Amino acid sequence: MDIDLTPYSMLLVNFSGGKDSSNILIETVKEARRQNVLHRVVAILSDTGAEWNSTADFSRSFCQRLGVPLQIVYPRCTIPDYLEARKRFPSMKCRWCTALKTSAIEKFIRHQYPAKQKSKILSITGERREESSHRAQLSEFELHKHLSAGQRQVFCYRPILNWNLRKVWQNIYENNLPIHPAYTEYGNERLSCALCVFACDKDLQNGAKNRPDLAERYMRIEEETGFTFRYKHSLKNILKEGEKHYVDK
For FRET with 56, which of 10, 47, 102, 191 sits at 20 to 30 Å CA-CA? Predict the structure, then answer.
């Protein structure tokens, strides 16, 4: 990390328990300790009601290992509840799930630092350019226009934007830190919600094993509404393919 952390009132690390957010917390702690501002680091986890069963406990343990407080926040409505009310799954054009997740974090920032209070907050996130064409266009550092208001300034910082996957895993191993069970026990490629519409089929099949309650709820919504989990791809069929592959093996 090549940034002066001393001007910021709070160094807020967006944490999910995944490999990328683990790395930004590792790097933030190292740099904050070097600059004598470790006491300003806070990790934040937005629990949408669609997380892996082990995510909250894993996150607490990981943050405790690094000596950082973890703040768990909750959206006004869980993803499963909102889905049942809306009757539509998220899509690339309408990522309402992401909006729900980030809204709880934004509320926390506004509550901690009202606009009338002079403050400067660094919101640290773990996007990487190699993950998608959209993320490839992101800036490493920029003003958060939506959250900056009055005397409150919020900046977005993406310290591992140029990291590749090999470096991500290497850094976790070198620091001898735990890895989320979704990777070690299930073999996931990514970690987000247990059943994320943007996940690969294998990760979805793993997530359904971990959260069968969620899978059943989503498949019931498919059946009731006629709308599929992904465009022309139902969750029911995705999970059936996984079962077939397992039997064939």
Answer: 10
